[in-house]
Amino acid sequence: MTDPLRASELSRSYGGFQALMPTDLTLRSGEIAILSGPNGAGKTTLLLCLSGLLRPTIGVITIDGHDLYVEEKEAKRQLAFVPDVPRFYTELTAWEHLYFIAQAHQVGDGFSQKAETLLREFGLWDARDLYPHNYSRGMRLKLGLLIAFIRPFKVLLLDEPTSALDTESVRFLVERLKELRQRGASILLSSHDTNIVKDLADRTIRIQNGHVEDL
Fold first, then answer.
1. Of 129, 152, 175, the domain-final residue
2. 116: part of which helix (H) or strand (E)?
3. What digits encode the pLDDT tens for the residues 112-136?
């Protein structure tokens, strides 16, 4: 069976500075791994490389058996990434964002009910017809999460997903991630929140000065 995510000899340098040392990393189906480490340790660099938004200096990344930088379309069909500061289309409302992503991934059936459930859970229902630039930081982070949840994936990458969430939304997020794990999703998220680590971690990965190791 192919591991949903596999990275081999992955590294990233910025000029003469090596932000990520050569790393091998595998995520198994139905696993939540927590990425920990101090600020500036390389967590975001690693997640950006794994997401396909930042090309590694060297290394190979496969998503569901597809090379992320050779078979990009096939790989990204099974990959969702929510950065700590999500970016949005300026001309689409929150509801329209969800509809667009659902249609792009061919999961339009039952869209309205699924979207309403997600928006109500995360407290965005009454703001569904607003544009994201009218949202607070926490609301934008919630919308970024919902855009991921509205579509299918095998691998989910999250960069500090609770950093701007209220307590109730953190609870809903934890419940959603546990449901996804039960369905076989592979999840890698960075967090400084010790409660998140305690509640979710099947495995903890530590990164410091660009060095990655399992704890």
1. 152
2. helix 111-121
3. 999 999 999 999 999 999 999 999 9
